[in-house]
Amino acid sequence: MSDLSKVALVTGGSRGIGRTIAETLAADGFEICLTYVSRPEAAEEVVKTIQGAGGKARAFQLDSGDRAAVATFFKEEIKGKVSLDVLVNNAGITRDGLMMRMKDDDWDKVISINLTGCFTFLKEASKIMGRQRSGRIINITSIVGQMGNAGQANYCSAKAGLIGLTKSAARELAGRGITVNAVAPGFIETDMTDELSEKVVEAMLAQIPLKSLGQSEDIAAAVSFLAGPGAGYITGQVLGVNGGMYM
Ligand code: NAP
User: Fold this and answer.
1) Which CATH number does the domain housing residue 138 bear?
2) pLDDT higher than 60, residue 118
3) Over the chain, what is the mean pLDDT?
């Protein structure tokens, strides 16, 4: 497999945190495969930016919540074609609402994409990395998976579940040379947090010792470290990147 290109697969790599992770890992020397679901023009822009900087990237429209499509993607695009060195499970959505009024569909959709989707990617990637006897898997969870948050029972449950998945997978896959870690962002300025009202943002800022919202670069730097040569002895960890909001 040594003549195959070294690939980092970033789910939801077309916008926000995922975009910055894709661009950062490309600058680290990885060929990037990124997924998106609804905005091909945004994904193509990331591919062009990476190519413009001398890197390699491809974008795939692939719904993380569609198990069959994810399995087909690995069979057709990854297995035997590239050396899959890094998987970043980043794609995620919110469907916020108070628990008593939360629609079943909003619960199901968030669990399906934010938790089951990560499991599906992790399972497929671990088969390939297991054969290679090396690999890094990094799951993007959230501070609210550690703390809970009113109005986000579905999202917090998925993100807390992702921490459990990270630790279990780290134990199962260590013997095959695969590390599995999570990065838990605090409140980061992206389209996802743009939806929050000024009042909510102000309340958040009051709880952040470093007194500012985070940037997607802060998360990408943590991912780059966990994917890089200095992190080979780190597995099963949750790295909080949250300005001190949760310690
Ligand atoms: P974002 O700006 O909303 O971007 C989400 C990305 O995921 C987009 O590229 C989107 O693609 C993709 N995506 C959404 N649903 C998908 C699906 N079903 N299949 C494949 N791709 C899908 O989100 P973000 O703020 O960058 O968040 C990225 C990750 O960090 C998420 O897991 C989020 O939960 C986590 N996080 C964010 C914050 C924060 O403050 N922003 C805090 C903690 C954790 P399209 O554009 O094609 O829809």
Assistant:
1) 3.40.50.720
2) yes
3) 96
